[in-house]
Specification:
Phosphorylase Kinase, domain 1, Aminoglycoside 3'-phosphotransferase, Chain: A, domain 2, six-stranded antiparallel sheet, about 15% strand, globular, P-loop_NTPase, Kinase-like_dom_sf
């Protein structure tokens, strides 16, 4: 049964006769503030509302047609299986029809319908979201960003003046909620963080532009806009209607996913995704701007929820829930801006000793950044992570470059407050001493975790590796030798037998 408050066209779209194919009755209508979405069984049709919100303008037929085609174009990048076509709606007297000859009175985006159970947010709620899903998501999103276009115009959106405009607007629009959903201290300290960052770190933002990390991104890639369907990760419903929301730093995009997990009190999953993504892209420097975008995404979620508090049509019980929800997001936005004390953790040990396994586990426990030498080496050599590296990749010169970059990243990020795990053999005293001396000069805390296992275990582990980025073989293992730790190194060293339980060894 149709509602008299719906436009005649939408009422027609609720009838099976409107469609040139069979439908599942009743046809479901989902409304957002900008669209009517009709679910017919096999297909979904999205009709844009003739609205103008400033940041979004669908007020004319030509604009709706344009943005329908933009939605199709942009979303086919991440979900080509879902986004099928843009179709005109034709009116003949009082009758509307989908497609055909005649003058169009509106346009719809046609999509393939998938079950809501396939959304990552739904999978999480059911306890079915696994590590392999997040690793696949990291790979898919890294590839999406790699292929995303950029040019001088898109890069201009990475300038400080462009970035801070929307962030300052968020503060202006939430002043009335101080003392209601957030404290004055939270507001002041969150704003002070961004003000200081923009005032003092212009070279950092310039570097993001210089290295072309400002791209035509998704713009709204949270867990409700990602699905796992037919054994494939699909990114859908990207921002088509506003360039500043889409022409952003890649860190802006991944911040949605990390913040989503943090808000669900699953920072371990956030860490797993983050480390997997960084390893795919090699963009560890992006961690320097990530807190800004994490805070921004949480703050926007808080702001939008806060808007319910001033709506007289919202029941009081709903407002109470909204206040609690907004308060949680404001607190999270503030938390991301708080200065933390960084630390360096140097792994050491031969191939197969379990360094990466231990490092991965500790990264999730500590919220640390794990940087594997195998990934760094391949990024430096221009070799795909899943490809086998040739001999030149393992030359003395490339090895030194690899360890130099590990050290540079470790020091840079630890100084920013990150705990950084340098995951490499560090079998030579010279390599270890560089890290120790630099960390001490920068007054950065340091720990060395020396991973050990019996020789037969090392060999078995190396032989059984599958799907790992390491190129080490049993033959390579026979040529490896761990130089003993000096007296100067010993105070930093904790030796771990990786065939035994980790927790008591770390506690001792």
């Amino acid at each position: 049964m149709t509602s008299p408050t719906l436009p005649p066209l939408v009422q027609s779209m609720l009838h099976p006769a409107f469609y040139p194919h069979g439908v599942t009755e009743p046809i479901q209508l989902v409304q957002t503030h900008i669209s009517y979405v009709l679910l017919t069984g096999d297909f979904v049709y999205k009709l844009k509302k003739p609205m103008n919100y400033g940041f979004l303008d669908f007020s004319t037929l030509e604009k709706r047609k344009h943005f329908c085609h933009e939605e199709l174009r942009l979303n086919q990048r991440g979900a080509a299986e879902l986004y099928l076509d843009v179709l005109p709606i034709i009116q003949d007297g009082e009758t509307f029809g989908l497609g055909g000859e005649g003058e169009a009175v509106d346009y719809v985006v046609k999509m393939r319908q998938f079950p809501q159970e396939a959304l990552l947010s739904e999978m999480y709620d059911r306890g079915e979201l696994r590590e392999q899903h997040l690793e696949a998501l990291a790979t898919v999103l890294a590839d999406f960003h790699k292929k995303a276009p950029t040019n001088d115009y898109i890069l201009s959106f990475g300038e400080v003046s462009q970035i801070r405009q929307a962030i300052d607007e968020n503060y202006d629009q939430t002043v009335n909620y101080i003392g209601v959903a957030q404290t004055q201290q939270q507001f002041d300290e969150t704003k002070a963080y961004t003000d200081t960052l923009f005032a003092e770190q212009t070279p950092l933002f310039d570097s993001r532009v210089e290295h072309k990390w400002i791209r035509e991104c998704h713009g709204d890639v949270h867990l409700r806009n990602i699905c796992f369907w037919h054994d494939k990760i699909l990114l859908f419903d990207c921002i088509e209607f506003n360039e500043p929301f889409r022409f952003v730093d890649v860190m802006f995009d991944i911040a949605y996913i990390i913040m989503d997990f943090d808000a669900r009190h699953r920072s371990d999953l956030a860490n797993l995704f983050l480390n997997a993504y960084l390893e795919q892209t090699g963009d560890w420097e992006g961690l320097q701007v990530l807190p800004l975008y994490l805070s921004r995404q949480a703050y926007v979620r808080a702001k939008v929820t806060s808007f319910l508090l001033g709506d007289p049509s919202i029941p009081e019980a709903v407002k109470q829930d909204a206040t609690a929800t907004a308060s949680g997001y404001y607190q999270l936005a503030w938390h991301y801006t708080q200065q933390k004390t960084g630390k360096l953790v140097m792994m050491a040990g031969l191939s197969g000793s379990g360094k990466s396994t231990i490092a991965r586990s500790l990264a999730r426990q500590w919220g640390a950044i794990q940087i594997r030498s195998d990934a760094v080496r391949k990024h430096l050599g221009g070799v795909a992570l899943d490809a086998h590296g040739e001999a030149m990749l393992y030359s003395a010169e490339m090895t030194q470059k690899t360890y130099d970059r590990l050290l540079n990243l470790g020091i840079t990020l630890a100084a920013q407050g990150y705990t950084v795990i340098l995951d490499a053999k560090y079998d030579r005293q010279a390599l270890r001493s560089q890290v120790i001396e630099t960390a001490q000069a920068q007054t950065i805390a340091l720990e060395i975790l020396h991973c050990t296992a019996p020789a037969d275990v090392l060999e078995t582990r190396v032989q059984q590796r599958q799907g790992d980025i390491s190129d080490a073989t049993a033959d390579v293992l026979t040529r490896q030798h761990m130089e003993p730790f000096t007296d100067a190194e010993q105070p930093f060293v904790k030796t771990i037998d990786t065939t035994q339980d980790l927790a008591p060894q770390l506690a001792s």
